[in-house]
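Sequence, C-alpha cells quoted for completeness.
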Amino acid sequence: MEEIIRTTISTTIEEVIQNSNLFCFDIITLAVSIIAILISIWSVVWTVRKGSKQDYNNSLYEDVLQKNLNSVMPKLIHKSIDIKSKCVNEEEINKFETFINKLRENILVFKYINEQFYNSMDKFIIKIDEDIVLISTRTENFEQKYEILMKDIKDLYRCVERHLFK
C-alpha cells in the first residue's frame, strides 16, 4: 500500500511539474499572441488613418488645384507669352494675372488645413504675379524675366508635389 501511495504521489508530482511547464508555456504563447494581435490592430488603424488623410489631401488637390495647375495655367502661359517674338499678348497676360489672383483665393482652404503649405503656395503665387507684371511692362531683358517666371512656376509645381507625395 505504501508503494502505491508513493507511486501515486510521485506520478502526481511529475504530472503537476509537467503541466506547470506547459502552463508556463501556454502563458508565454498567449502573451505573444495578444501582442501580435495588438500590433496587427494598430497597424491596420494606422494604415487606414494615413490612407484617409492622403485620400483627403488628394481630393482637395483635385478640387482646388488639379484643373488649374494641370490645364488652365499651362494654356494661359502659352497664350500670353511668345518667347520667340519676345512679347506678351496683353489680353491673355491680363487673363493670366486674373487667374493667378483667383488661384490665390482658391488656396485659402489650405490655410486652415496645412498653414505651412498654404504659406509656401501663397509666396510662390505672389512671386509669379510680380513676374507677370514685370514681364508685361518692360521689354528689356525679356529672356531673363521669362526664365525667372518659369523658375517660379516650376517652384510652385514642386511645392505642390512635395506636399502631396510626402
In short: The mean pLDDT is 79. The beta strands are 81-82, 87-88. DSSP finds five helices and two strands in the chain.
